[in-house]
Each structure stands twice: as C-alpha cells, then as structure tokens.
Amino acid sequence: AQRVTQPEKLLSVFKGAPVELKCNYSYSGSPELFWYVQYSRQRLQLLLRHISRESIKGFTADLNKGETSFHLKKPFAQEEDSAMYYCALSGGETSGSRLTFGEGTQLTVNP
Amino acid sequence: KAGVTQTPRYLIKTRGQQVTLSCSPISGHRSVSWYQQTPGQGLQFLFEYFSETQRNKGNFPGRFSGRQFSNSRSEMNVSTLELGDSALYLCASSLGQGSDEQYFGPGTRLTVT
Fold first, then answer.
1. Which of A89, B45, B107, B109 makes a 20 to 30 Å CA pair with B22?
2. Chain A hits for B44, Cβ within 8 Å
3. Model confidence at B96, in pLDDT bands (50, 70, 90)?
4. Nearest CB partner across the interface for A96, out of B42, B56, B105
5. Residue A55's pLDDT is what?
6. In the predicted model, what is the mean pLDDT of chain B?
7. Integer Cα distance of A9 and A3 in angstroms
8. How many angstroms separate the CA of residue B97 from the nearest CA in chain A?
9. Residue-level pLDDT at B1
10. Is residue B99's pLDDT more than 80?
C-alpha cells in the first residue's frame, strides 16, 4: 500500500523566514514524488517533482529514500507563497497516472 | 493550449438520484484521472482512464463508475447518491506516464441533499 503523510495541517511563518513543509511516504517500490500547490481560487497545479531536480519559485525538495521523506523547502518565504501544498506519490510506470496525496499543509506567510 | 474543463461546475442533487460529470482533457492527453476532495478525507483517487480503458481504480463502491470516449473526454457517474457523496470532484489529464505532470480542472462541486 502507498501512503503519504504531511504532519502539519497549518504552518505560519513571517515573510523572509525559511519554510519547510514536511512530507513522508511509504511505498515498497521506487516512487515518483511531487509537490502540488493550490493558490486561493486557483486550480491545483504542479510545483515540482523529484525527477526534475529543479527549483521552482525558490522551492526545492530532495528525495531522501533512507528516511522516506520529500520535504519542501524555501530559504526566504514570500507573502505570495501562501497557499495549500500537497505532497503526492505515484508508483511510476506500474501505477499509471494514479496519485496518492497527503492531507495537505496550509501555509500562511505573514507580512 | 486550453486547460482541462469540467462541466457542470456546480450541481445539487437529492439522495437516491444519479449524476454524470464531464471532463475534457488537454488536447493530446490520453489519460484522465478522477479525484474526490472532501474536508475530512482530502484528495482521494477514484479511477483513471487511458485510451478508453480503465487502467486504475481506487477504493470506492461500485456506485462510482466512469468511461472515456475516443476523443479522450471522460465522464464519471454516481448512482444512488448518498449525503456523503457531497464533495468537489476533480479530474486531471496527462500524457499517461507515472512521472508526467497532471493538469487539473476547476472541479465540479456536488451537493447531495
């Protein structure tokens, strides 16, 4: 069975502070990990995926297979980062496009 | 390119009725997945269709069904509606590989009274 856990439902930081959104997963094979974001009144959209190894809007995430984690980090949070963030897992080729989502973390960046 | 569209956007039904929701994927995308989003359960996978075939199915009762047409448009149907079926139903389209980005629609808000 595959499972994604985001331990923080709510996270509040001040502008300019570092932010880390935690994500842990359980999966027996080699998963594909993603972060999706939903800004207020907008659609759910991809923020980044571990295979790309790129930084989007200053966010990065490293897949740690030993700790089965895929935490999302940004060194200096901005007010426009306030949104709902979902960590998601795909089983890769064997599970098609099926995504298992975590419960989500609502990030608020205060001025 | 045009994004994923879902119709209708809002729907109110009575217990026991059935409902059909529609999703039009991005042109060229062959995979359409459906998700149910509720405050209590979050985002839960319903099923995925790829080239008109159901490729994956989540843990939902048989009252939830779907299909995909040759132009990749997809419909999902819920029969014998229950109060607990009230949710936002999202569809997402992609090229169909596990590592592909999924593009989500705006959702259909279903309220069952």
1. A89
2. 101
3. confident
4. B56
5. 80
6. 95
7. 16
8. 6
9. 66
10. no
